[in-house]
Design brief:
Keywords: ATP-binding, Cell membrane, Membrane, Nucleotide-binding, Transport. Belongs to the ABC transporter superfamily. InterPro entries: AAA+_ATPase, ABC_transporter-like_ATP-bd, ABC_transporter-like_CS, ABC_transporter_ATP-bind, P-loop_NTPase. GO terms for molecular function: ATP binding; ATP hydrolysis activity. It comes from Ramlibacter pinisoli. The protein contains eight helices and ten strands. The protein has a six-stranded mixed beta sheet, sandwiched between helices. A four-stranded antiparallel beta sheet has the order 2-1-4-5, covered by helices on one side. By secondary structure, the protein is an alpha/beta fold. β1 and β2 form a beta hairpin. The longest helix has 18 residues. α3 packs across α4, α4 crosses α5 and α7 crosses α8. It folds into two domains: about 170 residues, P-loop containing nucleotide triphosphate hydrolases (Rossmann fold, 3-Layer(aba) Sandwich), CATH 3.40.50.300; about 70 residues, no CATH class.
């Protein structure tokens, strides 16, 4: 593994008197795509929010690019599952992307060119003047991804971003995301309930378990995905290694 961009050391989180995440160590290298799986309530989103600085751990440390994470920053961008609520309905596609540039203090004269560039990247340039209500769910999620890319983050965190989409749109966006990661050298921490999605997208898959104890910590497994890229929706899913990993990881989605 290359240079660690994200470091989590002994991170533990308690909510409402319950241990959600027992002391957990994680390194995410620059340019790496790490997927997080596990049963509902095991702390997947909590782990993501701690990495983003939205949640402060009760123990342990989080560092991004060698600097302690003490709150949200523009170095880390967060893509939410609920794209409908993440977008401002009264702003156009271009206006929603502009939010990231406004927050970063980018001069108004510089914004149009940067907005156009990022919309070209995600294939939404012809729709710049439309409003979220005029877009499909997949296109709305592309807007949210575009807004994050405009931020020029070092780490992209995604919380089940394709979970509410139909199967065909989901597969298209998986391939679009893989292309963006490859072309722009993005580092991604990606939460999903879909085991096949995790194997298809990830360089590694991190499995969490519910109700951690001293003998059964939150981190159940961290497994490499040694399948060559680029990947193909049909051929990759029929690859013997893909099927082996699916069998190996399957039980981590239940309360093992």
């Amino acid at each position: 593994m290359g240079e660690a961009l994200l470091r989590m050391e002994g991170v533990a989180i308690h909510l409402g008197g319950r241990e959600i995440l027992s002391p957990t160590d994680l390194r995410v290298a620059r340019g790496e795509f790490v997927c997080v799986i596990g049963p509902s309530g095991c702390g997947k989103t909590t782990l993501l929010r701690a990495a983003a600085g939205f949640v402060a751990p009760q123990a342990g440390t989080v560092a991004l690019a060698g600097r302690p994470v003490q709150g949200p920053s523009r170095a880390a961008a967060f893509v939410f599952q609920d794209y409908g609520r993440a977008l401002l309905p009264w702003r156009s596609v271009a206006g929603n992307v502009s939010l990231a540039l406004e927050a970063a203090g980018v001069a108004a004269a510089e914004r149009p060119a940067r907005i156009d560039r990022v919309l070209q990247t995600v294939g939404l340039a012809p729709h710049a003047a439309k409003f979220p209500a005029q877009l499909s769910g997949g296109m709305q999620q592309r807007v949210q991804i575009a807004r994050c890319l405009a931020q020029e983050p070092t780490l992209l965190m995604m919380d089940e971003p394709f979970g509410a989409l139909d199967a065909m749109t989901r597969e298209n966006l998986q391939d679009e995301l893989a292309r963006l990661v490859r072309e722009q050298g993005l580092t991604v921490l990606f939460v999903t309930h879909d085991l096949e999605e995790a194997i298809y997208l990830g360089d590694r898959v991190l499995a969490l378990r519910s109700n951690p104890t001293a003998d059964r910590p939150s981190l159940a497994a961290l497994i490499d995905v040694p399948i060559a890229r680029p990947r193909h929706q049909l051929e990759t899913r029929e690859h013997p290694e893909f099927l082996r990993l699916r069998r190996e990881l399957y039980h981590y989605l239940g309360h093992d």
